[in-house]
Design a protein that fits this description.
seven-stranded mixed sheet; three-stranded antiparallel sheet; binds pyridoxal-5'-phosphate; 383 residues; alpha/beta
Length: 383
Amino acid sequence: MIKKNELQQKIKNSGGITVTSPLLPPLEEFTELIEEIWASKWVTNMGRFHRQLERALAEYLKVPYLSLFTNGTLPLLTALQALDIKGEVITTPYSFVATTHAIWWNGCTPVFVDIEEDTCSIDPDKIEAAITPCTTAIMPVHCYGHPVKMNRIQEIADQYGLKVIYDAAHAFGVEMDGESVLNAGDMSTLSFHATKVYNTLEGGALVMHDEQTKRHIDHLKNFGFAGETEVVAPGINSKMDEVRCAYGLLNLKQVDAAIEARRKVAQRYREAFRGVPGIRFLEDMPGVRHNYSYFPIFVDAKEYGMTRDELYFRLQEHGIFGRRYFYPLISTFNTYRSLPSAAPANLPVATKVANEVICLPMHHALSEDDIERVVSVVKNPKK
Ligand SMILES: Cc1ncc(COP(=O)(O)O)c(C=O)c1O
């Protein structure tokens, strides 16, 4: 197995193809905006660029209200706090660890429910069996940006009086039948980390339905301050600064082109891998505007003739650096593994998928040559 330093050196030396690459705004345009910020001396605390980016993103994403955050983890924490979630929160083990950590940070108990194989998101049909008198909320993830079965989840939530907070870190710009998936549930969160389809270096947002909730969230992300001398709740500091807001405004202008470039990569991968024994991938869903944030493949070792890990390291030998998102499952980490719902027997699908997945390189800057290099190794791994 390659160590991290060796891996970084190898990527540098080999013209390596990485799983993602940050979408960067033109440096001259960014420099101009930085000069404006320097001249104004207003560098953070909800300045002009912050207001502008909140408005621009709400419009682009077709959501009524949105509050910017300094990353995609703190809006998860703050959403749970704002909705006064206590007790048990039903969630998926097949996600980035921040999803479950947010539940833990709020003093709640995560309850893991298995996923569906064809969407990699929480299986709505298994949610009811996990509900107890202590359950107060469901926190699903639109894994890889593929929409969760939101109508079914809302029906269950309404029946049992539960809140729904979507971790939509992967779902920037994803729409179903013309409507943003971010409008589902009680709130949705986004991550604008450098690895995401749309990024502000580090960053994130919380999407909500009404102005009053937005005002409360705006207080919570600023230590709870509701005025110069009034603190309404034990808030945290998770404001986005002016430099990253300016960067975000510039990136918004080019995100559609980046998504289109990703769509073409997905199209080529699918065309190449259709019919390869032992390689499964996700298809586009009818009526959905996808963002192509990831391209996971699932390796059936028996049919493919090689295990997932063998392929993963074979790709590395060829300078291709995919990632095993999401392996290991969150439920296997120290903090969570003793929970009854973390038992592998409770999570057979998630366990299988986590052992089969590799996210292949997927970003706006992949060249045709890069794509063909990936295709060639996946199709002929023993060559
Ligand atoms: C599903 C999911 N939730 C939350 C996060 C946390 O976002 P951030 O890294 O911006 O804090 C990520 C980040 O990769 C994620 O993939």
